[in-house]
Amino acid sequence: MKLRSLAALVLALAFLLATAVAGEAKELSPQNPVKVPSAWMNENETFAAWLAHEMGWDKEEGIDLEINYFNSGMDIVNALPSGSWVVAGNGAVPAVWGGLRYDTYVIGIGNDESYTNGVLVRPDSPIAKVKGWNPKYPDVLGSPETVRGKTFLCTTMSSPHMALSSWLHVLGLTDKDVVIKNMDQPQALSAFENGIGDGVSLWAPQLYVGMEKGWKLAGDIKNCGETLPIVIQADKKYADENPEVIAAFLRAYMRGIHMLKNEPAEVIEPLYRRFFLEWAGQQYTPEVALKDIKTHPVFDFDEQLVVLDDSKGTSEAQKWQQYLAKFFTDLGRLSPQEYEKVKDANYVTPKFMKMVKQPVPPYK
Predict the structure, then answer these.
(1) Are 233 and 346 within one domain?
(2) What separation in angstroms does the CA of 234 have from each of 52, 98, 163, 287, 292?
(3) Second label for 149, Cα 20 to 30 Å away, from 102, 117, 164, 276?
């Protein structure tokens, strides 16, 4: 009897010790940084991550940020099971599928890309000849007659797809009224330049490259009356097991965000162009770089906490994701059963951003 009691006591003490150890935060050391694989596209939100690694802010936080290149948001989402990343910058559209299929979190907001995803048409297109068909959206080009049956190049299940679908909605149409050819962004840009398709839906900076070629903006997400953020995703299992690593990443990343928020775009532009050239292999003019910086509003630490705050109910960030889930369900891209799983957007959480805590170290 005494032996059994002693054994039970030993087991209980062992369990408590294990629990205490599991609950302790890791000691993150600049001398022995933790590798943090991450996934990004050649987009504005990646600049802050690149900057964090370039400036050594990640090492200061005890992590080594590995910045992996992907062509699209759905490519990022579908790569999660391979272990290619534990944090990522992604569109809010593929983030819905991440929450649905792979149990990912949304832990922050990269920027507002409502101004930087749009549908372009050639200047001689009949679509470009009609403006304000829907009086509620006076800057939108096209009409049902000029658009129905036409072919559009688009990276499907992405922010350009939302731009295309939102534009069609303004014209009283849906995806089913046109032909959509799925292409990644560089391919779509090149194909449209070579005469393929009647229109192309692009994100920035490809959008601005197209506009520099004289193509006309038929509609973007903002002038179609919607809002679309870039989000920061995290693998839920990894994040729950390593919250201090996720907080360290956010702390380093937010230094880049604070630089974008506080420095004049003209000061950032040379570094911004170097990022695109060295990391993405793309050369942009100073004009395109400046426009890309200025048309991507970012959220500083206090603003992040506001849009992520769910203490009084549904957060603003959750509402954005809920809208997208409903939007794509109505288009038939999500089944009613799938919609039920993501309609509350409970995969959006403020808990890791709260761990960052003020003040975020200065970027200088």
Answers:
(1) yes
(2) 17, 10, 25, 33, 25
(3) 117
Is residue 17 predicted with pLDDT exceeding 80?
no
- Whether residues 193 and 262 share a domain: the answer is no
Q: What is the pLDDT of residue 3?
A: 38
Length of the chain: 364
If asked whether residues 184 and 60 sit together in one domain, one would say no
User: Is residue 24 a part of any domain in this protein?
Assistant: no
Of 345, 109, 73, 107, nearest in space to 245 by CA: 107
Peptide bond into 205 cis (omega under 30): yes
Backbone φ, ψ for residue 32 (5° rounding): -140, 70
Do both 251 and 337 map to the same domain?
Answer: yes
Same domain, 199 and 245: no
Structural contact between residues 215 and 121, judged by C-beta atoms closer than 8 angstroms: yes
The per-residue pLDDT for range 317-335, each reduced to its tens digit, is 999 999 999 988 988 889 9
- Dist CA 28 CA 8 (whole Å): 35
What would the pLDDT profile of 246-301 be if each residue is shown by its tens digit? 999 999 999 999 999 999 999 999 999 999 999 999 898 999 999 999 999 999 99
- Domain of residue 179, residue span: 117-220
Query: Are 192 and 214 part of one and the same domain?
Result: yes
pLDDT at 34 over 50: yes
Sheet holding 34-40, edge to edge: 63-69, 34-40, 87-91, 229-235, 104-112
Residues 350/308, Cβ–Cβ less than 8 Å: yes
C-alpha span between 299 and 261 (Å, rounded)? 8
- In this structure, the answer to whether residues 108 and 121 fall within a common structural domain is no
Q: What is the CATH number of the domain that holds 235?
A: 3.40.190.10
